[in-house]
From TrEMBL:
Cited CDD domains: Translin
SUPFAM superfamilies cross-referenced by the UniProt entry: Translin (SSF74784)
Main location: cytoplasm
Similarity comment: family membership: Belongs to the translin family.
Gene: tsn1
Subcellular location(s) per record: Cytoplasm; Nucleus
Native organism: Coemansia spiralis
Protein name: Translin-1
Taxonomy of the source species: Eukaryota, Fungi, Fungi incertae sedis, Zoopagomycota, Kickxellomycotina
């Protein structure tokens, strides 16, 4: 029997093991940058709306690093192996997208588009549902990032009152309601995404409670 077959198989196993370690290393760096950017962006919860631009400007260096981190990761992945290893980095990419979505809301009070995600992270959102020919951000990762925005908005509504910015919760409530209405048009098949979408109503309720408390106290009409 020719044992060379097993030698060749072991070489392939070694190569795959090395690749996995390289991917893990790239993801570690990506997560590290996301945590730093998230910590800086969290300061938006402790300042009035007039000062949030300073917060988003402060994390621009982290977005540059995120682009580099994602570039390093994408160089390791061939299109044919994209879904084989996809679960390894999906959460990290989702975190990066969530940062973009929240930063754009803080800057422009609007929803980040797939084009915005590509501009910030230099990585395309695969909205066409086509075969993978490059490293992409999946549609589910983009939608999960939008769901994460609801949680940030509910926190922001509460914290805006704390910093005496009592008009902002009304703006947040209008935006969140419109965004929720848009989400309801989707027929979600992904179980995880569906469960996360179902949790949005609790964030909406928290925002409405802030509105109610302000009205009861006569602080807004």
């Amino acid at each position: 029997m020719d044992v060379q077959v097993f030698v060749d198989l072991q070489d392939r196993l070694d190569q795959e093991s090395t690749l996995r370690e390289d991917i893990k290393s790239a993801i570690t760096e990506l997560n590290k940058t996301c945590r730093l950017a998230s910590a800086k962006l969290a300061k938006a919860h402790s300042v009035p709306k007039s000062q949030t631009k300073e917060v988003t400007d402060a994390i621009k260096p982290q977005f540059e690093t995120l682009r580099q981190n994602i570039g390093t990761l994408s160089n390791l992945i061939q299109p044919v192996t994209f879904y084989k290893y996809h679960d390894m980095w999906s959460n990290a990419i989702q975190s990066a997208c969530s940062l973009v979505v929240f930063a754009i809301y803080l800057d422009d009070a609007r929803l980040a588009t797939p084009g915005d995600i590509q501009a910030y992270l230099s990585c395309r959102v695969n909205t066409e549902n086509t075969d993978i020919t490059e490293f992409v951000i999946t549609l589910e990762e983009y939608l999960n990032a939008i769901v994460s925005l609801f949680n940030e908005l509910s926190r922001l509504a509460v914290n805006s009152v704390i910093v005496n910015d009592i008009q902002r919760p009304q703006e947040i409530s209008t935006f969140a309601s419109d965004l929720y209405a848009g989400f309801q048009l989707l027929n979600l098949k992904n179980d995880n995404l569906r469960r996360r979408f179902d949790s949005i109503k609790y964030d909406i309720k928290k925002i409405e409670e802030v509105q109610y408390d302000l009205r009861v106290r006569g602080l807004i009409s």
